[in-house]
Amino acid sequence: MKYTIVIQWSDEDQCFVVLLPEFTDIMQPVTHGDTYDEALKNAQEVLELLVSALKSGEPLPPKRFGQTL
Questions:
Q1: Could you tell me if residue 48 is inside a domain?
Q2: Does a structural domain hold residue 15?
Q3: 10 within a domain of the structure (yes/no)
Q4: Which among 31, 50, 55, 61 has most CB atoms closer than 10 A?
Q5: How far is CA 37 from the centre of its chain?
Q6: What pLDDT does residue 35 have?
Q7: What confidence score (pLDDT) does residue 49 get?
Q8: Cβ(20)–Cβ(46) below 8 Å
Q9: What pLDDT is stored for residue 52 in this prediction?
């Protein structure tokens, strides 16, 4: 499955903040990074952990058409 990763610069936090729109019921924002690449790496790790945890018993959020990881 593919999920969306949204990375935005936060002037308030002075870092890149990561959101996973399909997981808004679990937590938001999910992670961050001082650089875009660090934020993306952290997001991918969190997404892998979330999917693994949810596969163990809870249903995954539905894919949104046209959005990818």
A1: yes
A2: yes
A3: yes
A4: 31
A5: 14
A6: 98
A7: 84
A8: yes
A9: 84
